[in-house]
Amino acid sequence: MQPNEFAQQAGLTFIDSYLLRRALTHRSFVNEHPETLEDNERLEFLGDAALDFLTAAWLYRHFPEMNEGQLTRLRSALVRTEQLANFAYEIHLGEALLLGRGEETTGGRERPALLCAAFEALIGAIYLDSGFPAVIEFMEERLIASSEAVLEDQTLFDARSLLQIWAQAELGETPRYSTVGSSGPDHSREFVVEVNVGNGVLGRGSGRSKQEAAQAAAANAIDQIGHTDYWE
Q1: What is the pTM of this model?
Q2: If we measure between CA atoms, which residue out of 136, 108, 138, 90 comes closest to residue 25?
């Protein structure tokens, strides 16, 4: 899918088309096309920060009854890797990405961590092109729908946040995460992370990034202890 076609079907209008193309450019494409000036990683950095601020401000306005801890956990659920990847799926972002051959053949267009990063880069590009009002317009309906889904299904809350709440309330400790293994080629690594609370390993998980693996380890730990009711 061409960048302009993607923008049209996603309901986006860019003044600077180069920003859009950069947001869609994965580093694997730059490695194979040296004439390409820049990948989307700097835009990803900007979009990540913009999403954190925007989501916090949106939640503050829309949920005046929530305390700081509840707002923090809800924000974590709305900007977690899997949720942002779902936003990317909804607008067919993966179909428009510029990927290197290796990333393409190993399923990069469907990989949650890659889609999450690309969505953040897209947000960064929207912000630079048209400012916060355009980002808010793009995200408003998505935040409404996803916040309703999270509030209906507490298992969608950020697992690391939930585990930390439990560990601090019950044990007065903070969970510790360590990468204990990895496998696969550089462009398709699989990481294994363990989470320790107290003197033992409480959970173990794997994922395409260390962050994703840590979330899986936290979710596994929550399953082990049977505590998912710390939203209240």
Answers
A1: 0.70
A2: 108
Q: Does the domain made of 159-225 have the CATH classification 2.60.120.260?
A: no
CATH 2.60.40.420, domain 3-155, yes or no = no
Annotated catalytic residue within 39, 44, 48, 158: 48
Q: Active site includes 186? A: no
Q: Give all strands of the β-sheet with 176-183 in edge-to-edge order.
A: 176-183, 190-197, 200-207
From the list 39, 44, 103, 120, the catalytic residue is 120
Euclidean distance between CA atoms 76 and 52, whole angstroms: 9
Residue ranges of the chain assigned to CATH 3.30.160.20: 159-225
Per-residue pLDDT of 46-99, as tens digits, reads 999 999 999 999 999 998 878 787 788 788 889 988 899 999 999 999 999 998
Q: Is 153 a catalytic residue?
A: no
Q: Which H/E stretch holds residue 123?
A: helix 112-130
